[in-house]
Amino acid sequence: MLGKRFNRMALGSVAGVMLMAAAACGGGDGGGTTASQEPTGASSEAPKDALKVGLAFDVGGRGDKSFNDAAYTGLEKAKTDLGAEIKELSPSADGSNRGDLLRQLADAGYNPIIGVGFAYGEDIKKTAEEYPDIQFAVVDSASNAPNVTGLLFAEEQGSYLAGVAAATKSESGHVGFVGGVESDLIKKFEAGFVAGVKSVKADAKIDITYLTPDGDFSGFKAPDKGKVAAEKMYQDGADIVYHASGDSGLGVFQAAAAAKKKAIGVDSDQRQTVKESDLQSVIMTSMLKRVDVGVFEFVKAFQGGAKGGSNVTYDLKVDGVGLSTTGGEIDDIKDKLDAAKQDIVDGKITVPAKP
């Protein structure tokens, strides 16, 4: 079940159909579906105009080797596979101009438009009301208007597998978690990770640190803070640290390399996206969050005539989240990870979404 790549074709076909189905029964009430369920409807007639897709990144922008880069991969695939004209914009360091970016794209004729990150929630809602003829999507936030699609992920499920891997591989029985911002979204990563660790070793010690409080998004772009937090954990005896902190994760990897310990990446296969070879070797796995698939399938569904008003959730059943295996460091525990995944898919394990 685990591999260097998920089955893109299988996931793409299921997720694409589900976006179309959600469009048919959407009504702007925040209702939705998971990409695991059967479709129940069809889409409307496809747009006839040229496909122009706009995307506004979260803080950190393109090049974060994680969340934003995963979204860009999906955007680039839309250009390659669907012939889309694409435009990407990045917010200011504090993210205060998110709404301006969305309006800039709308005024330039881009449709659909995607906001990357839960912080776009309110700005997407306002902009969607101002531009009712344009379709929007927001990653990590629920639909809040008839022309908005929410692209959601079961981060807690993928993080549970990361916890199983960390607890199984840890020699000290002591691991850590570094969150970028103490928000409800990042707490899903923490909750799943802790549950996974405890499922293997009930008495494991787990250090937890958040770089900034809720509302302060600088925690996603502070490698220095990430490094300090992880250094403290390694000094205190942790031998594996999992981060969900965007660009700040680079500091976690640097601390792991200095301590000759291990780390777990997030969102993308960071053993492949991080360029420094000395840092690549400390990343034993990454919790993959297939934002690229969500972005691409939304655009593909739009091209087919889909409308917003609903949510689509990417979970373990469709490999919307999971673990990377680059480097082969978790190959020897594949059976244990596969078993945990299957128990979640079958409903035998319900992973908590809150600490």
Structural summary, described in words:
Residues 28-47 are annotated as: Disordered. This is Nucleoside-binding protein. Residues 1-23 form the signal peptide. By secondary structure, the protein is α/β, with parallel strands linked by helices. The protein contains twelve helices and 13 strands. α4 (121-130) links the parallel β4 and β5 (136-139). α3 (98-107) packs parallel to α4 (121-130), α5 runs antiparallel to α12 (334-345) and α7 packs parallel to α8 (249-259). The longest helix is centred in the first third of the chain and has 18 residues, at 8-25.
Short description:
The protein is of the alpha/beta class and 355 residues long. The protein is built from 12 helices and 13 strands. The protein folds into 2 domains: 8-154 and 291-318, Rossmann fold; 155-289 and 321-345, Response regulator (Rossmann fold, 3-Layer(aba) Sandwich), CATH 3.40.50.
**Quick check: average pLDDT?**
89
Major sheet description: 7 strands, parallel
**Percent in strands:** 15-25%
| CATH fold annotation of the largest domain | Rossmann fold
Number of helices: 12
User: Between the first and last Cα atoms, what is the distance in angstroms?
Assistant: 27 Å
Rg, alpha carbons: 19 Å
Spans of at least 5 consecutive residues with low confidence: 1-18, 20-30, 36-48
Tell me the structural class. alpha/beta
Determine the fraction of residues in helical runs and give it as a percent range.
40-55%
